[in-house]
Design a protein that fits this description.
2 strands; mainly alpha
Length: 136
């Protein structure tokens, strides 16, 4: 099962970071990545640093479980774990992609204090209505 989790993580990363960055770049000429910002030790800096740590530790946990070094936190029967995990994964992936697309040209990873983007005040359908055709 750790290999299924690892495969899911790779797909999630490819879509939520790779594909979304490509869409953003095609629309704006920028990937949307701003990196870790803030004065070292500030809340902004810690938020960015912990985000990077989470990106690294998530697949590492699956690899350690595959090697037998790390036990799963909860032992569930395999069919239940796959079904429940698969449903939660699909809902999370769909929600992430929907939310990212709803942000339109204002989507970013990280903060640049000097950069100003349009405030997104409506959901996905409203942001699509402002474009005559999707550019992705």
């Amino acid at each position: 099962m750790p290999y299924a989790a690892l495969a899911g993580y790779v797909v999630f990363a490819a879509l939520a970071f790779g594909w979304r960055s490509w869409v953003h770049w095609k629309r704006t000429g920028s990937t949307g990545y701003r990196g870790v910002s803030g004065r070292p030790g500030s809340l902004e800096w810690w938020g960015g640093l912990l985000f990077v740590v989470a990106i690294v530790l998530t697949p590492l946990a699956a690899l350690l479980q595959a090697r037998g070094t790390l036990a799963p936190p909860v032992a569930l029967p395999a069919p239940l774990a796959l079904g429940l995990g698969g449903a939660l994964y699909a809902a999370g992936l769909a929600g992430t992609l929907w939310s990212q697309l709803a942000m339109g040209d204002s989507w970013r990873v990280g903060v640049d204090e000097g950069e100003r983007t349009t405030l997104v005040t409506r959901g996905r359908s409203a942001s699509c209505a402002t474009r005559s055709s999707p550019s992705w």
